[in-house]
Fold this protein.
Amino acid sequence: METDVAIIGAGFGGLGAAIRLQRTGFTDFVVFDRGDEVGGTWRDNTYPGCACDVPSHLYSFSFAPNPRWSNTFSSQPEIWDYLRDCVDRFGIRPKLRLRHEVHEARWDDHRQRWLLRTSGGDHTARVLICAAGPLSDPAIPDLPGVDEFAGTVFHSARWRHDHDLTGRRVAVIGTGASAVQLVPQIQPLVEKLTLFQRTPAWIMPRRSRRISRAEQAAFRAVPGAQRAVRAGLYLVREGMGLGFLHPTVNRFASRLSLRTLRRQVADPHLRDKLTPRYAMGCKRVLISNDYWPSLAQPNVDVVTAGIDRIVPDGLVTADGVHHLADTVIFGTGFHVTDSPVVRRIQGRGGRTLGEAWTPSMHAYRGTTINGFPNLFFLLGPNTGLGHTSVVLMIEAQLRLVVAALRHMRTTDIQAIEPTAEAQRRWTERIDQKMAGTVWETGCESWYLDSTGRNTTIWPGFATSFRVRLRRFRPADYQVVAAGTTPNETEREHADAV
Ligand code: NAP
């Protein structure tokens, strides 16, 4: 089958792309997703307590406000519902190819087309939008002995709802955004919860509240009211960005967090374990009112010794202590800087995106990549945020995608890619802007790749990203002629990095 555009992924990015294309007249597209329903990370993460830590009015598409949000910070089922509702509202369902995993996407130099090999058959497209998402492939550490474990093991993003945790001895590994949400939910059920913490998180109070029926009715009756709330939240959140760009601003927030810890955890030994010793914001700041109190309960142990190995009936830590467990839950995050999808995308000359991004990811405006014609990568390098909604970044990228497609149509160009020079200048500017931010204060986090570069976070306000992506700049792109030879391709790749 052939379409003008193929989209990989039906989460926030892929659905946003589909709706934008549909609404701007680029209606010849399909959306591939390996799952049996849309929703991406909001379909896959169903662990107890899963919710968003960005306010709902902002964590939604600007073009699809939802007056029915029931809480200022929505839970996973509501966000998943919202995405399914968008599919129907904008008539995207016929464009979906669910249960279609893309095994390979290869650029054909001569045909100037992307050739996709999917689990549901082959497909050809002129333009490829990769919206596979940075949080789609669970990362499970390679701990010795995991295969010999006699109990049940699973990752937070693949929750085993068929495994009742009541009365069990449960080991949770990791203390990131997912663990902080699920631990307080399962603690009252289990006989014993052992939490393996490598690094304590900075936690701020969760100031959420129910949205009343009267407010919902007002948002329905006066859509401008919801837009005004969104605009207010946008400004407040942009203000919070200051704390990341100028770390001293976070002193007040750090004091508030430590004061909350003192109030919620009476035991000084436990409090000491839970006290972060790095600058707030260097790793993702989490929000919760019940995580620390749940750790202070008598059936919980917080273990800070490193895990040495897994044995059939539990885990053994580096200090030789044997911790009994019949269930192990990995809250250990995702393959963010080493996502498997990049090994499946082959650009000019057969080079994979994984190869082009070894050892470090580079993209012009976080979206287009030299050597990969007509590829638009949503939430690519340095498009993540610590302070506000990533949906804002997706929408900025989509504006750029549409502008590029319009440019190609009006100038009758088949294929474009950013010049090596434009990509180099962009990367250089990002690296310069990163200096002095909180992410450069020396903690270890998944924001950093194996070279120590921060390739995930946008070192600025969401507004500055949106402004930079507002226009398509033809001078920063080169037209890709059919049949470019691999040698030329390699030379340009070498220039790009
Ligand atoms: P994460 O933030 O990457 O946290 C992984 C945790 O596992 C960290 O505490 C890490 O410790 C620990 N870990 C990893 N390998 C380990 C090992 N070998 N031994 C011991 N501990 C290990 O993952 P996540 O909690 O799933 O969250 C991922 C991202 O999803 C978040 O940052 C956020 O962007 C998103 N998320 C968002 C929400 C939301 O509300 N919007 C909710 C959930 C998730 P270290 O800290 O020492 O590395």
In short: Residues 51-54, 135, 141, 156, 173-179, 196, 198-199, 284, 307, 331-334, 446 surround NAP (CB under 6 Å). Confidence is low (pLDDT under 50) at residues 485-497.
